[in-house]
């Protein structure tokens, strides 16, 4: 950017600091002409608009904190939570927008959480979607069952395909005795958004 004092287009960076817990970078610059110093701040253009209207940078830690409560007493590790937050961020960023609402963040968490732990999913969804009757839970459980069934079917289809299509990745995985999830994941990644909830198999989350 131009020097704010003399509008000279050149400046040199004299100091760089990570700020806001990694969400931004501050650079101290010196104008090459007038030698005055000024600060620039770089932030990602990916932000969350809260219900109050306040805007803040997207934070994986906030996603983790929100989901962690729902995971109390469940076999979900910190690593699982970190991966889930990463998936949620990647999913939201892949839409190409620079702002998302808190609502959309919650919505993006649900499919990944349902893959991770069904009980945690029900707890989280009951708050996020404001379940207020047994029927709400029954509907959600019916959805989970359906999804489980679809996952099983998808696994069978994927296994069939892998039997005929052999990529170097699959060969290496099977040689190492690792279940052949590489092909499954690639296949799912190409599918439209509706199928994206199955992108990560529970076994992948454990690895
Ligand atoms: Zn200047």
Automatic annotation (TrEMBL):
Composition bias, Basic residues: 183-196
Q: Does the keyword Flavoprotein apply?
A: no
**unnamed Zn finger ranges:** 3-34
Q: How is the cofactor bound?
A: Binds 1 zinc ion.
Q: Give the highest taxon in the source lineage.
A: Bacteria
The protein's matches in Pfam families, at most eight in alphabetical order, are given as:
ATP-cone, Zn_ribbon_NrdR
What this protein needs as a cofactor is: Zn(2+)
Q: Which residues form the ATP-cone domain?
A: 46-136
Q: Basic and acidic residues: which segments have biased composition?
A: 150-163
Its job: Negatively regulates transcription of bacterial ribonucleotide reductase nrd genes and operons by binding to NrdR-boxes.
What protein family does this chain belong to?
Belongs to the NrdR family.
Q: What is this protein called?
A: Transcriptional repressor NrdR
What is the source species? Schaalia radingae
The top of its lineage is: Bacteria, Bacillati, Actinomycetota, Actinomycetes, Actinomycetales
The record's gene field reads: nrdR
